[in-house]
């Protein structure tokens, strides 16, 4: 565990807490994409298939349980909570899953490190995580006005992935034979998807204005 990895994990955890704060405390999910949250649930479910069969550390297990539990809780709130579900922008959140899921499934079968069920599922989760934020970014562009908590949530998600890239670079130079091209390339693609959002986020922060994305 190095500083970049720890900072990345804590940033990821903080992003989830910010979203849960918005949904559970304020009882509002306006500006949040249910489709992105469902994709993240699939990401964690397929990535952590070994949670009860392959023990790495207590820290690792707790983090897996947190991300699994929080992702499914958020989906439940947005789908079934009698107050929260009324604030969901269903008419604007229309990105089609198939354009993301199907290519990721095909890539996972074609490009992986080992053709086994768990390895293919893990690879699929890596590819899917790289693009799962797209429905959220599209929704923010359509709604344009972004509340503070939603903006912080998306920013923290992007920052988490950027910190993980620094973690991989650090490990590449400090650990012999540390080469994992699949998560590196997927992580780079994911970070690049946030570039436009980061630009307008910092612009709004610099000018002390409310975050607004161009249509």
TrEMBL record:
Main location as per UniProt: endoplasmic reticulum
Keywords, sorted A to Z: Endoplasmic reticulum, ER-Golgi transport, Membrane, Protein transport, Receptor, Transmembrane, Transmembrane helix, Transport
Listed GO MF terms: ER retention sequence binding
InterPro entries to which the protein is assigned, alphabetical: ER_ret_rcpt (IPR000133)
GO-annotated biological processes: protein retention in ER lumen; protein transport; vesicle-mediated transport
Record keyword Transmembrane present: yes
Localization of this protein: Endoplasmic reticulum membrane
Cellular component GO terms held in the UniProt record: endoplasmic reticulum membrane
Signal peptide start-end: none
Membrane topology designation: Multi-pass membrane protein
One Pfam family linked to the record: ER_lumen_recept
Similarity annotation: Belongs to the ERD2 family.
UniProt name for this protein: ER lumen protein-retaining receptor
